[in-house]
Specification:
By secondary structure, this protein is mainly alpha-helical. Helix content is 63%, strand content 0%.
């Protein structure tokens, strides 16, 4: 199998990534909602200069004590349709494909590697007699393939998140990357090589979870459908197994994805502490400021994107396999 598995997985991943990019962009924007809202703190301002005046009754100025009675409200959270409409109205239809060059590069590096490596491990670990692979081995293969793929593709991942998030910033704060190459070049000049692997631990963790849950679930559900004779090996089976794989991957990976998005998107300025010291710090600050369900921000667009992405990915993969069967 070798190189062939990488080619098949790469083609399918690029097609799936490009076609579902607008849904991924909406997901990123939703995951960043409420990020810049500071946690309100009570401020007490006392003027004790007259507190011990012995001659007459003390009269405190009206502004001597300042205790805020109401905390600033968090901005209302909006759904994926509202976010999509707002992007269209304020930034134009082209904005829905902001960062698509980074998506294509990411799929070329990350998904080609993970899909190809999973296929290699699958061939090695499949029982020759029964022609089957145990679920535990599928999960293990997914974990390994996801980790390697994420390490290779992290620079494109950082660039993609930043390009997708840029439109939500005030004009003066936007990075205005022209392309994924420009984004990577600017990060190298302004923030150093390490910035290309910012959030890489999160990327690796998420990729391991996504790849293990997505690929293992697809193979397992497909095998069950064929074994029980529910459907034949065709489009219906591929779509059903894909939807199951997309749902499991979305539920498992969303919390890590939210933290990854925020860490990658944070702006580090010279002489100032970064907004987050790391993944754990980001998770704690997010939960403190916005509640535990903030870790499932963007879940609807995540599953709305992961479902179609997974379907397109595996349906395309099965068709590419048929085309390249003789090679």
């Amino acid at each position: 199998m070798g190189v062939k598995g990488f080619v098949e997985g790469g083609i399918a991943s690029i097609v799936a990534g490009w076609s579902t990019h607008p849904l991924d962009l909406i997901k990123v924007r939703m995951q960043l909602q409420g990020e810049n809202v500071a946690v309100p703190q009570q401020v007490h301002s006392l003027r004790p200069a007259l507190a011990f005046h012995s001659n007459s009754a003390t009269v405190f100025p009206s502004n001597s004590i300042h205790i805020p009675t109401t905390a600033p409200e968090l901005p209302p959270r909006v759904g994926p349709i509202s976010v999509g409409v707002k992007i269209f109205q304020t930034e134009g239809v082209a904005a829905l494909f902001s960062g698509v060059s980074a998506t294509v590069l990411r799929q070329t590096l990350y998904s080609t590697t993970r899909m190809g490596l999973y296929d290699v491990l699958k061939q090695k670990w499949t029982d020759k007699d029964s022609n089957r692979m145990t679920l535990s081995r599928k999960v293990a293969a997914g974990l390994i393939a996801g980790a390697v793929g994420a390490t290779v593709g992290n620079p494109a991942d950082v660039a993609m998140v930043r390009m997708q998030a840029d439109g939500r910033l005030p004009p003066a704060q936007r990075r205005n990357y022209k392309s994924v190459i420009d984004a990577i070049a600017q990060m190298l000049r302004q923030e150093g090589v390490a910035s290309l692997w910012r959030g890489s631990s999160l990327t690796v963790n998420r990729a391991m979870i996504v790849t293990a849950s997505q690929l293992a679930t697809y193979d397992q559900v497909k095998e069950m459908i064929l074994k029980k004779g529910v459907m034949r090996d065709g489009l219906g089976t591929h779509v059903t197994a894909s939807f199951a794989a997309g749902f499991v991957a979305s539920v498992a990976s969303n919390p890590v994805d939210v933290i990854k998005t925020r860490v990658m998107n944070m702006k580090v300025e010279a002489g100032r502490d970064p907004p987050y010291k790391g993944a754990l710090d980001c998770a704690l600050k997010t939960v403190r400021a916005e509640g535990p369900m903030a870790l499932y921000k963007g879940f609807i667009p995540t599953i709305s994107r992961q479902g179609p992405f997974t379907v397109v990915l595996f349906v395309t993969l099965e068709q590419v396999r048929k085309l390249l069967k003789e090679f």
